[in-house]
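Quick one: structure for this chain?
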Amino acid sequence: MVSLLSFLPLLELDLELTRLGSSTAAARGMAGLVVFAVVLVDVVRATPQWARTDALVLIAIASRYAVFLATACGRAHGILYAGFGLALAGAGLLGALAPRRPFALGAAVVRPSLGYVVTVCAVGVMLPVALALARWGALPLVGQALVFAGFAAVVPVACVLVFEGRKATAPVAFGWRRTARGVAVGFALTFALANGGRQVVQSGALLARCVEPETFQGSAASRILEGQRTELRAPSGGPGLAFSFMSVVLVPIVEERVYRGLLQRVLTGKLGNARGLAAASSVFGLAHLGVYRFAVYQTALLGVAFGVTYAEGGIGAAMLVHALWNLHLLF
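Got it. Here's what it folds into:
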């Protein structure tokens, strides 16, 4: 629990940046405050339920300190070293001492055929292709949205009918408690994996600049750093209403329906929990190569987080966490 104190200086920094008018710091600080509350509630229990997620959150905190240390080339205030060490120590203790609760990755399809596996993988690849074709055909944004939504409304249902039969299309019972639990742990895990992964890459690139500043410009590390920054930058002038609707409402519903509700469910039945989740997340990441090249690994990490959310809270929880994350990225 003491290691969570390393979170507080970062929250204070975001608060100060927010007062200076930084909307990015405001969104990051709000997300951090929510995650801080979730992890705090878990670690004060006699037995934490989400020890691995808590540890990953602390690693993400340490990675942000690492960015500051790498930016200063090691000539930084002692509080940055203290925060870095405290967060890493807490993550190590949680990983070593806390009991590990296995993830039961949802209701997988029982022994899906190879044809079913190949089909759902093709569906995952074809979703971004369908949207790209709609854009290539110069369809207006409404037309693109209809193509995107129509694909997710028709194709997964058709796959289930063909390979599983009509009984498999029956609605799944919705539970508020399970959904809320899934959203809480899912958002914390999303925060940890996305931010932690990005900050580890960023700190590595900045460290390369410290070691060889003369050759940094034009190097692979420089290109990765700039490319990642460009791809993850919020829209200039703020997001419009249509773009916001696509990002926060339509995209989470469609992608979770395809990549978690169909692809992950089938792949975990064929490959097992861990490998099925990894395979579904990889397809999810590759499907975003048209948008992200330098930051595609983050999309795969988001796929892992959304996949765990789906397993813990159901498809509704996965859609909600995806929507909240996209909303936070708009600012």
